[in-house]
């Protein structure tokens, strides 16, 4: 499919946006003669046009499916916007163009061209109604998109494909101090979530397996502190047992996380008991075999031995269902519970990771252990879970720093 430039953003919506891997551009939009192209003698990659250059950049992240998907999304959005909205190639974009794009991300217009219609949450990339946006991006998401695009332009410049990085002219802000993690569930809200799962119906075989899966997903995400991508990519055979110097047997879970780094997560007695409970629900032996290839989360229906790994989208839907039911449970207590219900309704898989880290630090687990369990690169990242430290600061300030106004008649 060849895309032609659309000069006006008020024009009719494009009938079919094409994802990056299926995109075919006319010579004028391909970037072969982009105004920001470096001399051919300076190029250190074989790419002759913008699509090939972006593909070369993305190939560097092929070993991390989650990172690749995120980076492809941002490069794809910008490239489509450049050719459809501006009618010019990626390699001709100026600093001013990218300032316009920054505003576009906060409100992709015309929405009929760029945003998924109605209540559709996600469509296959080959679907005729596929769109690159689900809605406007939050300020935080806009900043993240620009960080990724800056990395793209910087690499293309270093590779000698572009003459310069148009985003390098952006005003540099001082890096803010790392904020405390705020997207996590308090101990009370976490109890509500557990109570909700415990009360799920189990009248039919399908309901029993679905309830067991919800309980297991919450268990392994909370006790293991896993990322969603780690949960969906790990198999049952990643559990193993070894004896320490005193002859005590301890179970571990081997996880491959960000940057293709492998770490060992302690599989506590509680986690192993829940694993056995979950496997029995599927009529499997309680203990996984070494090298077992079954996914960590099993399908509710399907033939044993032919299970496919759960997709991140399916995991997202399972958790949104659980958090939605928990929110409904709170709303049933009365209107005064609406703020807490709204928090639950907005929770996601990553909230459980933050919840686990926050609760571990609340219980005075050594920060170094939390760091290693979670696969953080430094203690500064892990220290974001130290909410109790701020609570103590608040209490001390309130108790000792007073103004002491007195009323006089």
From TrEMBL:
Per UniProt, residues of the Tyr recombinase domain are 180-400
The record's section on InterPro entries has: CB (IPR044068), DNA_brk_join_enz (IPR011010), Integrase-like_cat_sf (IPR013762), Integrase_catalytic (IPR002104), Integrase_recombinase_N (IPR010998), Tyrosine_recombinase_XerCD (IPR050090)
| Record-level GO BP terms | cell division; chromosome segregation; DNA integration; DNA recombination
The region called Disordered is annotated at: 380-409
Which Gene3D superfamilies does its entry note? 1.10.150.130, Intergrase catalytic core
The organism's superkingdom is given as Bacteria
Keywords (A to Z) from UniProt: Cell cycle, Cell division, Chromosome partition, Cytoplasm, DNA integration, DNA recombination, DNA-binding
Q: Domain Core-binding (CB) spans what residues?
A: 48-157
Its annotated compartments are: Cytoplasm
Molecular function via GO: DNA binding
Gene Ontology cellular-component terms for this entry are: cytoplasm
* Stretches with biased composition (Basic and acidic residues): 387-398
Specify the protein name: Integrase
């Amino acid at each position: 499919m060849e895309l032609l430039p659309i000069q006006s953003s008020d024009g009719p919506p494009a009938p079919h946006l094409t994802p990056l891997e299926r995109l075919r551009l006319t010579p004028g939009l391909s970037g072969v003669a982009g105004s920001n192209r470096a001399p051919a003698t300076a190029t250190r990659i074989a790419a002759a046009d913008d699509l090939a250059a972006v593909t070369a950049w993305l190939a560097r992240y092929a070993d991390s499916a989650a990172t690749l998907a995120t980076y492809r999304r941002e490069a794809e959005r910008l490239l489509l916007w450049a050719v459809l909205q501006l009618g010019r190639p990626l390699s001709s974009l100026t600093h001013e163009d990218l300032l316009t794009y920054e505003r576009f991300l906060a409100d992709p217009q015309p929405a009929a061209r760029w945003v998924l219609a109605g209540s559709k949450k996600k469509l296959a990339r080959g679907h005729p109604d596929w769109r690159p946006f689900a809605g406007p991006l939050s300020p935080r998401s806009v900043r993240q998109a620009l960080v990724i695009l800056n990395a793209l332009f910087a690499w293309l410049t270093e590779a000698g494909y572009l003459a310069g990085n148009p985003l390098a002219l952006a005003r540099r802000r001082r890096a803010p101090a790392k904020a405390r993690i705020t997207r996590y569930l308090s101990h009370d809200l976490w109890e509500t979530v557990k109570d909700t799962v415990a009360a799920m119906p189990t009248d039919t075989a399908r309901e029993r397996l679905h309830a067991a899966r919800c309980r297991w997903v919450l268990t392994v995400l909370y006790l293991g502190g896993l990322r969603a991508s780690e949960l969906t990519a790990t198999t049952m055979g990643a559990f193993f047992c070894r004896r320490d110097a005193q002859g005590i047997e301890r179970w571990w879970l081997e996880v491959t996380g960000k940057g293709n780094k492998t770490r060992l997560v302690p599989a506590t007695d509680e986690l192993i008991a829940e694993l056995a409970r979950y496997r029995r629900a599927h009529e499997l032996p309680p203990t996984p075999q070494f090298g077992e290839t079954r996914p960590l989360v099993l399908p509710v229906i399907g033939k044993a031995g032919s299970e496919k790994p759960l997709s991140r989208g399916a995991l997202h839907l399972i958790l949104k269902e659980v958090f939605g039911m928990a929110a409904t449970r709170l709303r049933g207590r009365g209107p005064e519970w609406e703020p807490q219900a709204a928090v639950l309704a907005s929770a996601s898989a990553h909230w459980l990771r933050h919840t686990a880290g926050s609760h571990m630090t609340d219980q005075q687990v050594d920060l170094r252990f939390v760091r290693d369990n979670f696969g953080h690169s430094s203690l500064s990242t892990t220290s974001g879970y130290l909410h109790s430290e701020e609570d103590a600061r608040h209490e001390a300030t309130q108790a000792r720093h007073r103004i002491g106004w007195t009323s006089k008649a």
